[in-house]
């Protein structure tokens, strides 16, 4: 469409502008609020998408170490400190085990 003006150097990249040039990483962050307004979405920060993605992964039982690696946290404890409260299912399993122990004791 753009003939010889299209930049072919970055064909292996996903985020290119109309002329095939790399989009600056800060471009999306700087224009995120414009996109939110344009589509009438609830106002959130761009960084909130990172938290949403991590929360979804954890709720679908992706191991915390994998979430930590994906987020590029330097230590899994960082991920655990931020997202461990979301793991309600494992807390319920632990509570059920404890209740089972008490129930077994009552039957003796």
Structure in a nutshell:
The protein is an all-alpha fold.
Beta-strand percentage?
under 5%
**Number of helices, where a helix is a run of at least 4 consecutive DSSP H or I residues:** 5
- The Cα radius of gyration reads 23 Å
Question: What is the total number of structural domains?
Answer: 2
The level of helicity is: 55-70%
Shape descriptor reads elongated
Can you give the mean pLDDT? 84
Would you tell me the structural class of the helices and strands? mainly alpha
Order of helices and strands: HHHHH
Describe this structure in words.
57% of the residues lie in helices and 0% in strands. The protein has 2 domains: 1-46, no CATH class; 53-108, no CATH class. The model has no long low-confidence stretch (mean pLDDT 84). α3 (64-71) packs across α4 (76-83). The chain is elongated, with a radius of gyration of 23 Å. It starts with 24 loop residues before the first helix and ends with a helix. By secondary structure, the protein is mainly alpha-helical. It has helices spanning 25-38, 48-59, 64-71, 76-83, 88-107. The longest helix is centred in the C-terminal third of the chain and has 20 residues, at 88-107. It has 5 helices and no strands.
